[in-house]
Design brief:
The chain is an alpha+beta fold. It is built from 4 helices and 6 strands.
């Protein structure tokens, strides 16, 4: 049996005679293994976590009416009304998460009258800031597909009156 300290390996028999070697320690709070405790181990972030962060950040931008294509929003509206179902904040968001980087694809619907270029830029900035701040991952790209424009007189596909 051996005990490892900053000074190397010491046999148990030597420890009984002389006690542990404390000369390499730097005070009462010295740690074994060296290095900062925050760097020991690995943190893994699931794709779904990044999808939720990105989905919420994109929806916060003025001019974004909804996320996802018409079909996915229709199925989502049905799923949202099922007892026990929850509103999907990940609708319209796809991510690829690596160990230190992530790439995102967003599908949005913008309100009529807003500058699509400005909305896309604001979405990109908000998503990058939120994902990098909360996860520590580097966002290498945010691809935005504008799949529709919500006209003022159009009935909303997610409205309560359509499904009862």
């Amino acid at each position: 049996m051996s005990d490892t300290t900053d000074g190397g390996s010491t046999r148990a028999a030597d420890l009984e005679k002389t006690g542990p070697d404390t000369s390499a320690r730097k005070g009462p709070g010295a740690r074994r293994g060296g290095g900062d405790a925050a760097t020991r181990g690995r943190t893994t972030i699931a794709d779904g976590v990044v999808e939720k962060i990105a989905g919420l950040a994109a929806r916060d931008v003025f001019g974004v009416h909804a996320m996802g294509s018409g079909l996915s929003r229709t199925f989502g509206a049905v799923r949202d009304r099922v007892p026990g179902g929850s509103k999907s904040v990940t609708r319209g968001v796809k991510v690829e998460v690596g160990e230190v980087q992530t790439a995102l694809d967003l599908e949005i619907i913008v309100d009529y009258g807003v500058s699509i270029v400005d909305v896309a830029k604001a979405v990109r900035e908000n998503v990058v800031a939120a994902v990098e701040r909360m996860t520590g991952l580097e966002v290498v790209e945010v691809n935005i597909a504008v799949s529709d424009v919500k006209l003022p007189d159009e009935e909303d596909e997610d409205s309560e009156s359509r499904l009862q």
